[in-house]
Amino acid sequence: MAEDLRSLRIDRSAAPQSRSGSAWKWIVGAVLLLVLLGAGWAGYSYLTAAPEVATVRVQAQRSGGAGAGAVVLNATGYIVAAHKIQVASKVVGKVAWIGVEKGDKVQAGQVIVRLEDDEYRAQLQQARGQLAALQAKLEELERGSRPEEIEAARAQVEQAQADLENARVQLERIRQLAAEKVMSKSAFDDAQARYDAALARVRNLEKNYELVRIGPRREAIEAMRGQVEAARGAVAFAETQLANTLIRAPVAGTILERGVEKGEFVTTSFVGERGAKGYVVTLADLNDLRVELDISQNDFARLKPRQRGIITADAWPGVEWEGVLDEIAPEANRQKAAVQVKVKVLNPDERLRPEMNAAVAFLSDEPAAAAAPGKPVVFVPPSVVRNDRVYVVLNGKIVERQIRTSGLTPMGLRVEDGLIGGEDLVVNPAADLKNGMKVKVRQP
C-alpha cells in the first residue's frame, strides 16, 4: 500500500506548458476581435458617411412688375444641327490623304480629303493632245490652199492631159491598123481602155485643181470648228474631274463623323459598310442648333410660329437657353399621332451637342401675375424640386421644405410660398434623401 502511495506523484513540469498554450489562445482571440471590430467600424463608417450633394443658391428679387409669360406646354426631344451635311465625292478613287479628325472645325472650301489622281491627270493630258491636233487642222482649213499646193495641182492636170493626148494618138493608130487587119481587136480594146483611164484621170485632177484653187468649203470649216469646241469641252471636263479629287468642305462647321480611312475606295454612290464609301465626312454648324420635338395632336393647338420657349438639357441641370419655334412639319405622323416641330436655340454655346436630350417649356404671350409690392419674387430651377418639395442644406444637414409654385418662367419655377431667397438647395435630390440627413456639399 505504501508503495502504491509513493507511486502517485504530480508531474509539475507539464503545468507551465499548459498555461503558456492558454495564453496564446487569449492573444489570438483578442487580435481576431480587434480585426472584427475594425471591419465593423469601417463598414459602419462607409454606410453612414455623409453623401455629397450639389447645391444651388436661391435668387430672389423684389419687384412689383409683371413676370414673364406662363408655360403653356412642356415637351421633350433631341438637339439636332439645323444643317447636317454628308460630304460625298464627285469622282471615283482611292483615298490618298485625310486632313481632318472627328471634332475638328473646318472652313468653307478647306481641303479635307485628297484622292489618288494619276488616272485623271493622264485623261487630262490626252484631252489636251486631241484639242491641239484639231486646232491645227482648223487653222489649216482657215488659211486655205497655199500657192505651192495650187501649182502642184495644176502641174498634175497638165501632165494628165499630156498622157491623155498620147493615149488618143495611140488609139487612133491602132484603130487604123485594126481596120486594115494588121493588129488584132484585143490590141484595139487595150488601147481604148488606156485612153478611157487617162481621160478619167484628167477629169479627176481638174476637179481637184479647182477645189485647191478655190480653197476649203465653209461647211468643212464649220464642222471642224465644232470638233474643236467638243475637244475644248473634253479638256474642261477632265480638268474638273482632276479638281474633284480634292474634296473640300462646302460650308464652315465641325466634323461629326469621318467615314473613310487612307487607302479606302470611295465612289459617287453608297455601296456598303465594308465596300466603297459614298461619303467621306459628316459635318454641321454647331452654332445653328435646333431642338426636334414630337408634339401630340391634342397639344398642337397650343403652339404657333415664332412662339418663345425655355430650353433645358439633361446634361446641364439648372442651365437654360432661349428658343423660338422655327419650323413646323407640313404633315403629321400617323403612327405617332404627332406633329414634328423644331425650336431654334437663340443663344447656343459649346455645352450643347447634337443628339443630347432636351426639354422645351413653351411660353404664352400673356405675362404672369404680378408680385405684391415688397414681396420677394423667388425663382428656382426645376431640377431642385421633387414632388413639390425642396431640400435645403443648413449646417451640413438636410431640411425638407414644402413649396408652392405658380409655373415655369424664363428665370425658372416661380415660388409663391416656402422660400424667401438665399437658401442652398440640393440639385437633383436623390430618392433616399431625408430630413435631418448629414450631407457634404460638393465643391464646384
Let me know the number of strands.
24
Structural class of the secondary elements? alpha+beta
Number of domains: 4
Largest sheet: 6 strands, antiparallel, barrel
The fold-level CATH name of the largest domain is: Helix Hairpins
Sum up the overall morphology in one term. Answer: elongated
Helix content: 25-40%
What would you say the CATH architecture of the largest domain is? Orthogonal Bundle
Q: Give the CATH superfamily of the largest domain.
A: Helix hairpin bin
- CATH class of the largest domain equals Mainly Alpha
Q: What are the key terms here?
A:
single chain, Elongation Factor Tu (Ef-tu), domain 3, alpha+beta, six-stranded antiparallel β-barrel, 6 helices, conserved putative lor/sdh protein from methanococcus maripaludis s2 fold, 444 residues, 4 domains, OB fold (Dihydrolipoamide Acetyltransferase, E2P), elongated
Question: Care to describe what's here?
Answer:
18% of the residues are buried. The protein contains six helices and 24 strands. Helix content is 35%, strand content 31%. It has four domains: 52-68 and 370-441, Beta Barrel (conserved putative lor/sdh protein from methanococcus maripaludis s2 fold), CATH 2.40.420; 73-82 and 286-367, Beta Barrel (Elongation Factor Tu (Ef-tu), domain 3); 85-116 and 245-284, OB fold (Dihydrolipoamide Acetyltransferase, E2P) (Beta Barrel); 123-239, Helix hairpin bin (Helix Hairpins, Orthogonal Bundle). Strand 21 (404-409) and strand 22 form a beta hairpin. Helix 3 packs antiparallel against helix 6 (218-243) and helix 4 runs antiparallel to helix 5. It has 444 residues and is of the alpha+beta class.
